[in-house]
Amino acid sequence: SAVISQKPSRDICQRGTSLTIQCQVDSQVTMMFWYRQQPGQSLTLIATANQGSEATYESGFVIDKFPISRPNLTFSTLTVSNMSPEDSSIYLCSVDGGLGGREQYFGPGTRLTVT
Amino acid sequence: QKEVEQDPGPLSVPEGAIVSLNCTYSNSAFQYFMWYRQYSRKGPELLMYTYSSGNKEDGRFTAQVDKSSKYISLFIRDSQPSDSATYLCAMGSGGYQKVTFGTGTKLQVIP
Fold first, then answer.
1. B residues 8..67 contacting A (CB < 8 A)
2. What one-character DSSP code corresponds to residue A58?
């Protein structure tokens, strides 16, 4: 299994600002994923981040709003740009745990509130 | 219509009860099915994974899949207060991007 940490664990931000969330894994992994979990809604995949290539974004998510970096095999960042209250959510990173991608190990999440 | 429907609960049961958690889905292409458990302020963790119709048992947990009805269930026997968490069903048809999660059912087991 992989141990994943995220920073910050929570933050309260002003509208119009940006926040960068860090995700650190204790082992090298090829694929990392970023999810959003809003109250009452399902986990929604934002993008997949492979080391050495551009992140792949899901429908409804764009790089200008959620730029992602993947500088090495154990680390990734997600930036939430020009925030609005609608961006208030829990943001989770995960890594492939095997089973052909069926199993994912998740970080503890970053709880973001935008005022 | 959502691809995956899951009753959000909350579901409150006494310790020792049998718990039944359910999801329905509309996409007949889904081939594999998972249940994740998420404790408060933690990320989800995989509890059960199954590929075919039928039952799969792991200790006090049984996952059941009925592809003909597009219905999956998770049964918890002899429920414990430590089972109190949100349970997310998830399913997919191939590859990482195809995993679709339910909204989760919040379970509380009362001592």
1. 8, 32, 34, 41-46, 49
2. P
At residue A61, the 3 state secondary structure works out as: coil
Only one residue has tokens 């026997």, namely B77
SS3 B10: coil
Phi, psi of B98 (to 5 degrees): -95, 5
How far B22 CA lies from chain A's nearest CA (Å)?
Answer: 15
For the beta carbon of residue B87, count every other beta carbon within 10 angstroms.
25
Q: What is the DSSP letter of A82?
A: S
Neighbour-count burial for A91-114, b at 16+ CB within 10 Å, e otherwise:
bbbbbbbeeebbbbbbbbbbbbeb
3-state secondary structure of A101: helix
Q: Do A102 and B32 make contact, defined as CB atoms within 8 angstroms?
A: yes
For tokens 């899901």, what's the residue? A58
Which of B41, B96, B101 comes nearest A43 by C-beta? B101
Q: What is the pLDDT along chain A (115 residues), one digit of tens a residue?
A: 889 999 999 999 999 999 999 999 999 998 899 999 998 888 999 999 988 888 999 999 999 999 999 999 999 999 999 999 999 999 999 998 776 667 889 999 999 999 9
